[in-house]
Amino acid sequence: MEPIQKYQLNTQRLNQQFLNKNLVAFDFLTLLHQNGVEARFVGNVVRQYLYNLFHAKLSTCLPVLEYDICVQSSPQRLKSILSQLNIPCLQENVNYGTFKIYYGHHNLELACLRRDFNHKGRHCSVEFIDSFELDSKRRDFTFNAITVDHKGCIYDDCDGIPDIKHKRVKFIKDAKISLQEDALRLWRYVRFCAEFGIEPNLTIMEYARDYSHLLKKLPIKKIVYEWYKIIATNRNVFFYLKMLHDYEMTQNYLGPFFYPTDSKDYDQTGIYQYYPDIPKLTLEIIKN
């Protein structure tokens, strides 16, 4: 797919500003390119930049702490190249083609291009592929499929740019299918609505209620990570947390942690072990 040429984005200005803010991370993409591997930014860093381009002053952009990068390579080849470049992996999952590295004082999350199938919660079978476009189809929302290559060219395979421009949280697949594939998307949907400052679609929230039981299969830290991000938006936090509660996405999954029992192991398990203040804060928000 050719780089996008729409919405009258000044690509030279866009690319240069993006490059200036992310020089070290772009250096890593260029390094892979020089070693015969194409890679692109995807997800947070691209979405955040474009959102601020349309809706805020660039000077208000928060620094990016982590970069998601999709890589056109098999896991074995990528692991070999990282070893040759003396770049240590902090964490890896070769079966899913994911690697976490630390490069130039930045956390980089690398994921080999793949196709997901036979979904069972967050687990699935994978096939590693060469197509950035096909890889984009496995993602959750259209704006999370936008990619940027080492030259700063933007690729929008799922038409996510107009959704960022008009503040729409749009699933790539049918919402029912997408939510069943990965229950964490229930929370991510509400979180992105909070980031955009828009009301969640009530039909989608009913789907979320129907599939909320799937949340029980998720690691609790992933849920709380989304929880923190909702609170961090500072956009009418009460409204979004109350909606999560009303549509049974807290008590169905986090009931034992938010509604205490007499268990002697209570304080040593679940959410309190990692984030002791979150349940109390959330219940106060909901009750008030």
Question: Please, could you describe this protein's structure?
Answer:
45% of the residues lie in helices and 16% in strands. The protein has 288 residues and is an alpha+beta fold. The protein folds into two domains: 1-172, Beta Polymerase, domain 2, CATH 3.30.460.10; 174-288, no CATH class. A seven-stranded mixed beta sheet has the order 3-4-5-2-1-8-9. Strands 6-7 form a two-stranded antiparallel sheet. Strand 3 and strand 4 (98-103) form a beta hairpin. The N and C termini lie far apart (50 Å). The model is unreliable at 255-274 (pLDDT under 50).
Could you give a quick summary of the protein structure above?
The protein is globular. It contains 14 helices and 9 strands. With 288 residues, it is α+β, with helices and mostly antiparallel strands.
Helix and strand layout, with pairings?
Elements: H1 11-21, H2 23-34, E1 39-42, H3 44-55, E2 66-71, H4 75-84, E3 89-93, E4 98-103, E5 106-112, E6 114-120, E7 123-128, H5 132-136, E8 147-148, E9 154-155, H6 161-165, H7 175-181, H8 184-196, H9 202-210, H10 220-232, H11 237-246, H12 251-258, H13 270-274, H14 278-287
Parallel strand pairs: 2-5
Antiparallel strand pairs: 1-2, 1-8, 3-4, 4-5, 6-7, 8-9
Helix pairs in contact: 8-10
CATH architectural name of the largest domain: 2-Layer Sandwich
Counting H and I runs of at least 4 residues, what is the number of helices? 14
CA radius of gyration is: 20 Å
What pattern of helices and strands is seen along the backbone? HHEHEHEEEEEHEEHHHHHHHHH
Q: What percent strand?
A: 15-25%
Biggest sheet architecture: 7 strands, mixed
* Helix vs. strand class: alpha+beta
Shape: globular
User: Strand tally, please?
Assistant: 9
Any idea how many domains? 2
Poorly predicted tracts of residues? 255-274
Arithmetic mean pLDDT: 82
The CATH class of the largest domain is Alpha Beta
